[in-house]
Amino acid sequence: MTQNVFPVPGSLQASAHVNAETYERLYRQSIDDPETFWREQAQILDWSQPFTQVKNTHYSPEDVTIQWFADGRLNASYNCLDRHAATRGNDAAVLWEGDAPGETKRITWSALHSEVSRLANALKKLGVKKGDFVSVYLPVVHQSIAAMLACARIGAIHSVVFSGFSSEALAGRIEDCRSRVLITADEGMRGGKYVPLKKNADAALEHLPFVEHVLVVRRTGRDVPMKAGRDRWYDEALAEVPDVCEPVDVTAEDPLFILYTSGSTGKPKGMLHTTGGYLVHAAASFKAMFDYHPGDIHFCTADVGWVTAHTYLIYGPLANGATIVLFEGVPTWPDASRWWQIIEQYKVNIFYTAPTAIRSLMREGEGPVRKHDLSSLKLMGSVGEPINPEAWLWYHEVVGGGRCPIVDTYWQTETGAVLLCPLPGAMALKPGSATKPFFGVRPALLGNDGKIVEGEGVGGLCFADSWPGQARTIHGDRERFLKTYFSTYPGFYFTGDGARRDADGYYWITGRLDDVINVSGHRLGTVEVEAALASHPSVAEAAVVGFPHDIKGQGIFAFVTLKEGVAESQDLQRDLIQIVRTRIGPIATPDRIEWAAQLPKNRSGKILRRILTRIAAGDFENHGDTSTVADPTVVADIVKRIQLQQ
Ligand code: PRX
């Protein structure tokens, strides 16, 4: 197989923060002497009390300990705001582009600082104290950043819930952390459509009487019901408090936020991130992997509800004083040139997005890209799922004009910040590979026999030691944390992904090994979707698997068994789709629902998803080892039905 390799551009070898020589040296140091390495990296932040210990971490089967910079004190909002507002308050911190073209806002460091301080005071007035949770259910507006930083300013812990999640999904996430305060908006705007956020929030709060206060941002200004005594307009609450609020010093190990993500069992996991390690890792990796230099304009397209936005739209860039473009809308509205128009308009230098979006824009051809001057771009990134070489090459040639390196960054909600990625001045790129470990990161591939795979090979992608941005636990469920990440391969953190290492030591992610699927870069537990389907009164049981999808990476394929006497119908299919949208949100909409008289199970009654995954991929012959199937006619029936439809 011939392989494309893209060497480091000559200009970058000289100008980049890290070149090939420094990468080798610093990587070695970061592994051999992590104390010295991370002590220096941590100077990217201002500490109100310097730490004396850098690292206290181990993954022994008896005890998992993850502590970084534990006795240091700092404030994340101070680091992301005050120190920039003090020196260049009139510069832009956030360039907001609304859903509709022409709706823009330029928010300076001073203005953001003042808004964050007011909101922090307003939260204090509502009784929010250090260690309290605050839920945030907002569209991509600057107030979402203000909400996060205001929490950080007073030591409260934010829990941002993606605004595309349904009221039920929101309710579950509020109930889990029992936040007494919710910050939301009247409505959101996406692709010219209104998203009824306040209405969803009201429905979510119906059974959550412990939520005492709701602050409501006026985004569209249209009429929404306000509940007396509970709901307040955000702008009014801010107007009556001062715009000065001393940042509270917290210890490095005090929580900064939780963020929910899907796992292989039903309930979403609230990954808990702490302040010092997370912010050091976010800030240092942002600077190195995007080769950020002061003055660069950074555009990350992720929604504020995902970890990508937490780390590389908000905390990492703002800690570095970077100006960010914050875009509320979608890449295809009013037409497929929207992102390219934004890049031209704001002279974006660094652009970070997901492969699924690249694939869907590729379908529109080169025309929408060529209409715009993208010469400001210096570097582009990819995140969230493997990028197929075809999409990589299109991104590189058509969007990046063949000049801009693509950093394919591998990480997870759990890892807080990047673990595998190229440093653009240091590594040749191979389309589809997340290349090499970031500093301080010790990848290992583990075989089915539990042994470490050396050299070239494939295995479960694990990490042998902690890194500063690592989640410390699952909120309220340390047992689950230990079981999920540390029990499969004792002594290692297991990501749930498979990977291959090639002869040059480059890593290639091969996809999830557990019951998690990656749909358009969004992570979903198949069990969550199954539970939503099974909640319909006509459904006896359901099995959900991923299948290869040209645009989404993976699509959702549901096999559904109906209760005795219930007739199969298209109406019922529509109802099932609706129930998934209501219980989780549109991102979990099944692409295909097939009826199955029965589901294949082993003798102890466990559904054999492995076989269904093959069938969903169109492989009707090769089901692997079927000796465990209790009743092989079940598989034959399903295959027959699907073949009949094709
Ligand atoms: O399967 C991997 C995939 O996304 C998962 C993490 O999803 P989430 O926690 O939602 O975070 C996404 C953004 C950081 C991983 O377990 N993934 C993420 N980045 C890549 C990737 N797969 C391949 N290449 C990547 N660059």
UniProtKB/TrEMBL annotation:
Record-listed CoA binding positions: 190-193, 308, 520, 581
UniProt keyword list: Acetylation, ATP-binding, Ligase, Magnesium, Metal-binding, Nucleotide-binding
Residue ranges of every copy of the Acetyl-coenzyme A synthetase N-terminal domain listed in the record: 23-80
Molecular function in Gene Ontology: acetate-CoA ligase activity; AMP binding; ATP binding; metal ion binding
GO CC annotation, single: cytosol
Protein biosynthesis is among the record's keywords: no
CDD domains reported for this sequence: ACS
N6-acetyllysine modified-residue sites: 606
E.C. code: 6.2.1.1
Catalytic function, reaction form: acetate + ATP + CoA = acetyl-CoA + AMP + diphosphate
PTM remark: Acetylated. Deacetylation by the SIR2-homolog deacetylase activates the enzyme.
Entries under Pfam families matching the protein: ACAS_N, AMP-binding, AMP-binding_C
Annotated ATP binding sites: 384-386, 497, 512, 523
Ranges for domain AMP-dependent synthetase/ligase: 82-464
Residue positions binding Mg(2+): 536, 539
AMP-binding enzyme C-terminal domain segment(s): 528-606
Cofactor(s) listed in the protein's UniProt record: Mg(2+)
GO-annotated biological processes: acetyl-CoA biosynthetic process from acetate
Protein family (similarity comment): Belongs to the ATP-dependent AMP-binding enzyme family.
Its biological purpose: Catalyzes the conversion of acetate into acetyl-CoA (AcCoA), an essential intermediate at the junction of anabolic and catabolic pathways. AcsA undergoes a two-step reaction. In the first half reaction, AcsA combines acetate with ATP to form acetyl-adenylate (AcAMP) intermediate. In the second half reaction, it can then transfer the acetyl group from AcAMP to the sulfhydryl group of CoA, forming the product AcCoA.
Name under which the protein is recorded: Acetyl-coenzyme A synthetase
Native source species: Microvirga vignae
